[in-house]
Fold this protein.
Amino acid sequence: MNESTAASSHHARLLRLHAVMALVGLGRSTIYDMIKLNAFPAQLKLGRRAVAWRETDIVNWISTRPGMVANEPELVTLDGKY
């Protein structure tokens, strides 16, 4: 691992649910439904009642979505066709 990789992983941010929802424009239930379908990055358990997502995972997910820009979600259905 080079210095820039070490530095970027050292400063990796964790986002709580409300921040993730604001970035991707999806609601709580939709996010968790998509996680079950492996269509959205899984959360990390921080404690007994706290979870968060790596900012890099969310940014990467956004960048792989055709036509998806932060805060401008495309139409999503829950039939597995994301």
Notes: The first strand starts at residue 14 and ends at 15. The chain has four helices and three strands.
